[in-house]
Amino acid sequence: MIRSQAEYFDGQSANSRSVAVQVQSDGLMLTDSAGQVFATWSLDVIRDENIPSEEASLFLSISDTSDIRLRITDQLMVDALRARCPKLTKNRGGAVQTWAKPVAASVAVLAGVAAFVWFGIPYAADPISRLIPETALQELGKGVEKQIIAKIAKKDDPDNVVCSESGADKTLLRLISEFEGVSSDDQDSAAAAVNSIIVVDSKYQNAFALPGGRMVVFSGLLELAENPNAVVAVLAHEFAHVKERHPARLMVSNIGIAALFSVALGDVSGGTVFAAIGQMALGASYSREMETDADARALKIMNKLQYDMRPIIPLLTELGKKQPNGIFSELMNTHPGIEDRIAVIKQQSEQVFRPSMTKAEWAALKTICKNSV
Amino acid sequence: MQNFLSFDVSNRAVFMRLVKNKLLAIPTLGFYRFWGKTHLRRLLWQSMRIGEDRLTYHGTAKELFIGFLIAMVLLMIVFGILTFALQLTLGMNEVAAGASQLLNMVLLLLFWQFAKYRLWRYRLSRTSYRTIRFFQSGSALKYTGMVLIWMVGSILTLGWLYPLMRLKLTEYRVNNMAFGDQHFKFDGKAAPFYRLYWPVILSMYAYIILPSALFLTNAENMHSLPNGSVSMQDPFFVFKSIGLGAVLIIVAGLLGIRARVGEYNYVTTQTRFSDAQFAANIPLKRILKVGFVALLVVVAAYGFVATMFGLGTTSGSEFMISLGFLSAFIAFLLVDVMIFMFLFIPVVKLMSEHTYVNNTEVFKDVAASSANSPKYGEGLADALDVGAF
């Protein structure tokens, strides 16, 4: 029979008293200083509250609701109880059921957050982006454009990489004003105007729209295009982005998502990375919607101007070859799948098309960076 | 006087726990943190002794999680509606936009204070010593209100009410702190707070005055170019400005640390519990040494992250790219662990080594209190990143 002294806390006071404890077949018997047995603890319910556990001592409890504790430091008794109490280090059951409400609540919160992300942010992004003063957007766009140019120029003078040639410049401006002309009827009051379009000397085959109505075309794209209408279609697409204020809306969405993620993921630094990835993925998903929208609008513009949009298809196919494949890059891609885009463009109705520019104009545009100083 | 606390934490156990928390945060998208934090706190609390007895942490992950859900909903509602309404009503002009931003910042600051009080309350109420719980009475809302009023006062007096604000807030916080059925009592004066904080206030002035002075003295060196940019004849002007900025940040930082350490020592020395009188004399030098070492470690860790990230972006081979990014990611995750191990743990050790009490027996004569403890966790605090652990 194992006996030892132990320190008993009644849960009502910080003071403890010394008791004798004895392991018996039906439990742990507690005897006070007068020799009276005042409690017998069933070995099945005894739990050690030292978490993490300590080598040389036990701090025993018999239920989650009671603050009564028994501290045992006698090594023989500690070892005996470790051997005899089956649930010494186990969580008490019964707490499981109480998870039903939290789970329901978290599902509800998650649904709320999801609704906020899928509908709330894109919905709010448009009106909020309109509240940003036009001058601020223009400054922002100018700043980004400057950075891009500086990056392309590297050590070169930034002015040297921006291409300009009077004929080609005129063609670009004519196209933009033609776009303006045919899209004026379905234009809402807050639609943005194109304030600037530049061609940058770079091997990148790309074009994009920036906040504040700025369009940037890389000369690599002009070189890759074999048909003038491919370039015109790209310009119409970027024009649609500008008209619909897509860059500003995307910016607002991204800020919203970033804020949301950083709150949801808390202070885990791994969470920061997830927040960034999540933001990129969600931002890209919004962006894909905008790209689809811009394609549809570009098609409308091209139809009205009687320009053939289909020559953009070989250009898209060519660009598609250079994109990485896989689920991850699909998720992160800011543009919809090439096949889907081509399918939309192929639907352009048969009609009598007009040439979008003369041979001379096309030649001037293609060589804008070679002829400019 | 004898040591009040002793902190005999196993660095290895803490390190393993932190790493485990980090790793499990990845597949769970960070949601393991409620469980991870709870495990970590049990470990830390149990490493803290008063006399011969250890503290026990009673909080559960579920409480933290529910608190987080509440905080999420509250934050979403408050900030969503507020910013949206503000932007819609005030809208267009820049003054209004600035005002709305300022209001948001003030709101966030007040939220943070509110959350901090709730955090103290939660942690204290989930801490027991010899089976008796601590707690924090008082109202978080009232505390936040006090912060707001004193903050406005401090701004209007150009900082000179700030030390008094620290005194008043400490009074409210410590006098509302209780163990069992008895409250702690803090009896402090304003003068020591002013002695600690006057250099901090002046250093803030220097932060505004010196850069403008430097700028003005250099004004004749500058010429406006036709394209609107400004050219300077003194080529070292930029370096001078950066150097001045760095010196000011370091000075303000050191003065701030000095004030906080002094404040801890003073507040502890002016606090009583029943018949026990506390005292503290944490040496500033030791704290600075710990801070310096931690700074070196963090700089080295971030340097490693940057190097590996650079390797990842510039390298040609797939293998090197993945290796670069992977090690940058791992190092990035470990920075938090480093800060905890090299800053937090040593500081707590220093605090326990230099905090004293003249009588530990009084803690044994305390009866349990019937006061309610908060039902939910520290959600707001969690969501707003308040607190080190």
Write up this protein:
The complex is a heterodimer of chains A (373) and B (389). By secondary structure, chain A is of the alpha+beta class. Chain A is built from 14 helices and eleven strands. Chain B has an eleven-stranded antiparallel sheet with strand order 1-13-12-11-8-7-6-5-4-3-2. The model of chain B has no long low-confidence stretch (mean pLDDT 83). In chain B, β11 (271-273) and β12 (276-280) form a beta hairpin. Chain B contains eleven helices and 13 strands.
Mean pLDDT of chain B: 83
Question: What coarse outline of chain A follows from CA principal-axis ratios?
Answer: rod-shaped
State the secondary-structure class of chain A.
alpha+beta
Instruction: Give the H and E element order of chain A.
Output: EEEEEEEHHHHEHEEEHHHHHHHHH
Low-confidence stretches of chain B: none
Residue fraction in strands of chain B: 5-15%
Work out the number of β strands of chain A: 11
Largest sheet of chain B, in brief, is: 11 strands, antiparallel
The oligomerization state is heterodimer
Mean pLDDT of chain A: 82
Fraction of residues in helix of chain B: 55-70%
Point out poorly predicted stretches of chain A.
Answer: none
What distance lies between the first and last C-alpha atoms of chain B, to the nearest angstrom?
30 Å
Specify Rg of chain A, calculated over alpha carbons: 36 Å
What is the string of helix and strand elements of chain B? EEHHEEHHEEHHEEHEEHEEHHEH
